[in-house]
Design brief:
247 residues; alpha/beta; BirA Bifunctional Protein, domain 2; three-stranded mixed sheet; 12 strands; globular; EC 2.3.1.181
């Protein structure tokens, strides 16, 4: 698998990387490019997945972008490691199993920092749970299968400003909270978190990959961006548009 590392650019506009993701997804789906991890950090952005409801965005002044991923509304911003695994999958396609394996891979990476995390039945993502405290999500996941290849991915809170989540109901879960590696006493850099996490993800995806390989190679990101040229993705309904309440 190749790593397209955009972290060196610092926080990047969300839709700029979305365009890059859709270009690479098309290349991977057509078997013209190896399976890919896009690793990046977003400028402050709120995005709404397909399950978002009006009640999840109580403050209608919050600018939110609709996206064609699973899940509800979430926040992306500085200090958060975003990883898009773009994997050409073999049949049978099982998005639920892919997400569960993603969760377990993240849990394995967090264990290297001494963090005990869990899966919560009926809720995607990776969680920190303790008796007498609300469950807190440390990593959100929203993955889509299209043209037999995965897209979108995960957002791991490393040193994220958690106050930025308070303008929405994260993931549509009013009875849960969010946390970060820093809040849990393990501050680190996004680069270090990526180095720790990606091998776990690569191993987790072997059973799904049409072209299995745990080997990780750093791609020439600038060359891929140049190769992308003036590519413009085929529009998806509402994708990239502003969220407007249904009622």
């Amino acid at each position: 698998m190749q790593i397209v590392n955009v972290l060196h650019r610092g926080p990047v506009d969300y839709m700029t990387v979305d365009r890059l993701q859709r270009y690479i997804h098309g290349e991977v789906a057509a078997l013209r490019m190896p399976d890919t991890f896009i690793v990046w950090e977003a400028q402050p952005t709120y995005t709404a997945g397909r399950r978002t409801e009006d009640k999840d965005i109580p403050d209608t002044s919050v600018p939110v972008i609709r996206m064609d991923r699973g899940g509800s509304v979430t926040y992306h911003g500085p200090g958060q490691l975003v990883v898009y695994p773009i994997v050409k999958v073999r049949p049978p396609k099982d998005v639920v199993a892919f997400v569960r394996n993603t969760e377990r891979a993240i849990m394995g990476a967090l264990a290297e920092y001494g963090i005990d995390s869990v899966q919560v039945e009926g809720r995607s993502g990776v969680w920190i749970c303790a008796p007498g405290a609300i469950d807190r999500k440390v990593c959100a996941i929203g993955i889509k299968f299209a043209d037999d290849a995965t897209m979108h991915g995960l957002a791991l809170n490393v040193t994220t400003n958690l106050e930025d989540f308070t303008r929405v109901i994260p993931c549509g879960l009013a009875d849960a909270g969010v946390t970060s590696l820093a809040e849990l006493g393990h501050p680190t850099t996004l680069d270090d978190a990526a180095v720790t996490l990606l091998p776990h993800l690569a191993r987790a995806y072997q059973q799904f990959a049409l072209r299995p390989s745990e080997e990780l190679e750093v791609a020439d990101t600038e060359a891929i961006i140049t190769q992308m040229g003036d590519f413009h993705p085929t529009p998806h309904a509402d994708t990239g548009s502003a969220w407007h309440p249904r009622h």
